[in-house]
From TrEMBL:
It comes from Streptomyces katrae. This is Class I SAM-dependent methyltransferase. Keywords: Methyltransferase, Transferase. SUPFAM superfamilies: S-adenosyl-L-methionine-dependent methyltransferases. The keyword Transferase applies. PANTHER family: TRANS-ACONITATE 2-METHYLTRANSFERASE, TRANS-ACONITATE 2-METHYLTRANSFERASE-RELATED.
């Protein structure tokens, strides 16, 4: 999913099992993101950083024509097994141009919990905007800047990569920055903010993950934005 090394190779099966039912994925990010996209029936959708295909499955079930890409060969294999003929899935590093995709090919581009891994987020967003149709939308979810600040301490206004070791031994390295800098990067990529949502947990999280539910009803964990292309003169 991130550029350079590929941390999810070797951990893809574990991640897929956990993400299918976990508090932050199943009861938090997926419902928020899918709600922000809205009706997808008949739409061409690029899931950029598709992981094991959990979002692809939801999109296909709702009538979309999804295409998934991921840097991790293990994730691509799992997504391909999950989707079969329902979606095209291929390996691709988001730090590289989508040379195999024509301009204005997709109605929706999805970036769920992946943009914060990338070293040059503006370049990636510009390339994704290229393959987006004029009336289309890019939907991004990422860690909430306040959550990052509460986790690391120090000044809210500093930016940089955070590196953490997860319980399964995977090294998790991601970018943090204040909200104003996220918005500035979207603007620099030629995109306009259509809507910003701060995630709220589903009630089902309280039944399955009561500790996480109690925390996430008091403070933000993730945020999602819906972006549109800025047209000349706008």
């Amino acid at each position: 999913m991130q550029s350079g090394d590929v941390p999810y190779d070797g951990f893809a099966q574990t991640f897929a099992r956990e993400a299918a039912v976990s508090a932050y994925n199943a009861h938090y990010d997926r419902p928020t993101v899918l709600g922000l996209i809205g009706d997808v029936n008949g739409l061409d959708i690029l899931d950029a950083g598709c992981g094991p295909g959990l979002y692809l499955s939801e999109l296909a079930a709702r009538g979309a024509r999804p295409v998934g890409i991921d840097q991790s060969a293990d994730m691509v294999r799992l997504a391909g097994q999950r989707l079969g003929p329902l979606a095209e899935v291929r390996q691709h590093d988001l730090a590289e141009p989508l040379i195999w995709v024509e301009d204005e090919s997709f109605d929706v581009v999805l970036l769920t919990l992946v943009l914060h891994y990338l070293p040059d987020r503006v370049s990636t967003l510009r390339e994704l905007a290229r393959v987006l149709r004029p009336s289309g939308q890019i939907v991004v979810s990422t860690s909430h800047p306040t959550a990052d600040w509460l986790a690391r301490g120090g000044s809210y206004f500093t930016s940089g990569f955070i590196e953490e070791s997860w319980s399964d031994g995977m090294i998790h390295r991601y970018w943090h920055q204040p909200l104003q800098d996220w918005l500035a990067e979207f603007t620099a990529a030629g995109l306009a903010l259509d809507r910003l949502v701060e995630h709220q947990p589903l009630p089902s999280m309280a039944r399955n993950h009561p500790g996480e539910h109690e925390k996430l009803t008091r403070q933000p964990g993730f945020m999602a934005v819906r972006l549109r292309k800025r047209h000349p003169g706008a």
